[in-house]
């Protein structure tokens, strides 16, 4: 991508990310099932559902959407423009903390491509299925189903926390919201909002303190 393209984005692009994107705007693995386009058209179109997945559209950037309805986002500080943690969201209220940053996430994907190429060479299988197997099942993949989880707290409970940051964030949320503390979370970590919110309802997510906290709130019927 060119600097002019990146400068026209509604989010700032740090120099280390620019340096990468000048060389690669994305990549396709195998038969096209896995297409990583870091300048997705969805970033420049009106959002069909303004509540999903992140409430503040100016503070996120879509990195990848796949065929299983999973969308990956980078958390961008709306004031400093710093690119932070990588999250993924499913169409139901499941959220996941995936990686500490954009470049580390891409590096992990490249590791998976190397593994898939080696598997394809040694077994005679196609690269695409080999990459899918690595992406979803390998212990090295940041996109695998996590063994770690962060239990969402009901906001009324979080407001009574002795942890001042938890209480401060909870005070900014409505009573029916749930809050997950991700400050010390490992990568990847599941945030099972679907365990506490009804499936099929519209949910809006909010993030605080550089992605250290993630909240989910039901959107009332309009």
Query: Structural class, judged by helices and strands?
Result: alpha+beta
What amount of the residues lies in strands? 15-25%
Q: How many helices?
A: 6
Strand order of the largest sheet: 3-4-5-6-10-7
- Coarse shape: globular
The profile of the biggest β sheet is: 6 strands, mixed
- Along the chain, the helix and strand elements come as HHEEEEEEHHEEHHEEEE
- Round the mean pLDDT to the nearest integer and report it: 87
Number of strands: 12
Give the low-confidence spans.
Answer: none
Fraction of residues in helices? 25-40%
Radius of gyration: 18 Å
First and last CA, distance: 40 Å
Task: Explain this structure.
By secondary structure, the chain is α+β, with helices and mostly antiparallel strands. It has 6 helices and 12 strands. The protein has helices spanning 3-7, 15-21, 102-123, 127-137, 155-158, 164-170; strands at residues 26-29, 34-37, 60-65, 71-76, 83-89, 95-99, 148-149, 153-154, 178-181, 189-191, 203-208, 213-218. It has a 6-stranded mixed beta sheet with strand order 3-4-5-6-10-7. Strands 8-9-12-11 form a 4-stranded antiparallel beta sheet. A hairpin with a 5-residue loop joins strand 5 and strand 6. The chain is globular and about 55 Å long. The termini are far apart. The mean pLDDT is 87.
């Amino acid at each position: 991508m060119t600097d002019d393209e990146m400068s026209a984005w509604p989010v700032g692009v740090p120099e280390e990310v620019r340096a990468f994107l000048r060389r690669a705007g994305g990549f396709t693995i195998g038969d096209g099932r896995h297409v990583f386009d870091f300048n997705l058209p969805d970033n420049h179109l009106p959002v069909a559902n303004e509540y999903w997945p992140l409430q503040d559209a100016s503070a996120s950037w879509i990195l990848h959407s796949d065929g299983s309805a999973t969308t990956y986002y980078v958390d961008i500080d709306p004031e400093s423009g710093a690119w932070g943690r990588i999250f993924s969201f499913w169409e139901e209220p499941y959220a996941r903390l995936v990686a500490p940053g954009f470049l580390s996430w891409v590096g992990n994907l490249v590791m998976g491509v190397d593994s898939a190429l080696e598997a394809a060479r040694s077994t005679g299988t196609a690269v695409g299925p080999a990459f899918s197997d690595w992406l979803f099942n390998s212990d090295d993949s940041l996109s695998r189903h996590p063994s770690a989880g962060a239990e969402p707290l009901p906001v009324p409970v979080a407001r009574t926390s002795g942890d001042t940051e938890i209480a401060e964030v909870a005070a900014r949320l409505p009573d029916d919201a749930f809050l997950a503390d991700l400050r010390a979370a490992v990568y990847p970590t599941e945030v099972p909002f679907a365990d506490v919110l009804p499936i099929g309802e519209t949910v809006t997510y909010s993030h605080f303190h550089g992605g250290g906290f993630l909240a989910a709130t039901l959107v009332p019927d309009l």
